[in-house]
Write a structure and sequence with these properties.
The chain is an alpha/beta fold and 224 residues long. It has helices spanning 14-17, 25-36, 51-58, 70-82, 118-131, 148-151, 181-187; strands at 41-45, 62-67, 88-91, 104-109, 132-144, 156-159, 162-164, 175-179, 192-205, 208-220. Strands 1, 2, 3, 4, 5, 6, 7, 8, 9 and 10 form a 10-stranded mixed sheet that branches. A hairpin with a 2-residue loop joins strand 9 and strand 10. The protein is globular and about 45 Å long. The structure holds S-adenosylmethionine.
Amino acid sequence: MVESKGWNWKIVKENQKEIWKNPSIESYYLINRWKSQGKEDFLDLGCGLGRHSILFGKNGFKVSCFDISKEAIDQTKKWAEKENLELDYRIGDMLNLPYQDEQFDCIYCRNVISHTDTEGMKKVIVELSRVMKSEGECYLTLGSKDTWGFKQQDFLRVDENTRVRMDEGPEYGIPHFYADYDLIQKLFKEFEIVNIYQVVDYYEEKGKTCKSYHYHVLIHKKGN
Ligand SMILES: C[S@@+](CC[C@H](N)C(=O)[O-])C[C@H]1O[C@@H](n2cnc3c(N)ncnc32)[C@H](O)[C@@H]1O
């Protein structure tokens, strides 16, 4: 299995951090959905700078913040303290979550669990299932095989689904697992898949319009 490696948040410039400080669109939908289902214990897996930990904390969830990067956890803690929020913080690897079985009602992992290879992905899914309560839900994103990074010849090929990014930046040397619809169905066969969307993000880089594709997946752990 490829070695886990967190984001190098220290080299991300202040102006580039802005996008990582504003909660993503679907988080507002999930707050409503999960509140109406009576869910409380929330895990922000790979919390980054904490944009979703803070939002869910402000909305009354009991939040656990988890990331492999100490810098990410330090930044999240600093922000939460400013907001007078009491959250739980752990540094670690998603391949071995430091939580009890069935601890969480809901888990959010946006642009996180793809940071491994095929073997690692299977392990993360076992861990997710272990720490989720029965009838719990998890929202996750996965890089799509339609995205440029999967086809990039300069990136190291680890296995049929995984490439290691070799371009300069906070993701240098980090594995990226890419999926397609059939693979997602296979990986999450133990769960009920509530929905799957493939989303295209458009962004400008060096004067060019670039596109990246991600699957957004909501899974539900079936009751015993
Ligand atoms: C793209 S950022 C997304 C952050 C956050 N989910 C958000 O949407 O703002 C990915 C985060 O996952 C963390 N990460 C990468 N590999 C990890 C691993 N094996 N275990 C835990 N966290 C990991 C990185 O350190 C980084 O903070």
